[in-house]
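Hi P.,

Sorry for the delay on this. The queue was packed all week, but I finally got your sequence through. Input first:
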Amino acid sequence: MLLEIIVAVVVIVVILVLVGVPLPSIITLLAFVMMGIVVLAMVLFVGFFVVTDISLLFRKRANGKFVRITDDERFERAVYQVDGTEYTCLFPAENIARRKLYHTDGSYPLLISRSQKRRTAYDRHSLIVIAVGSVFAVLFAAALAAGAVMLPQVLF
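Then the structure:
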């Protein structure tokens, strides 16, 4: 996919040069497109963690027993058992030090869904990812706000 994007950009630049668009204008256009892609990625990152943080409000605490790692989906996820019901972690299972993190003999603190329809959970590893990601989301949101304030001054 990356190769197709690069080829498309090269083709567009060649067409613009053949049409007679000045090179500084093409470079400026490419810079704005790249900046737009970065801003879109930051907005999606912030949005993901805002939704995740809000979903934490609708969870309840429980202690669960680690059962297994799923291998039938796009990515492997941990499965925990709470009061005889299995809950699948929403985040991928950790690959680094997997043997040290997941043990079938211990009890793990979880945040499980209140609804019995969705049997999903957040384990301590996913909560750490959410905490760190939320901090970066706040920093990205501040950077986006600062950029939005400074952009008119830079352009005009």
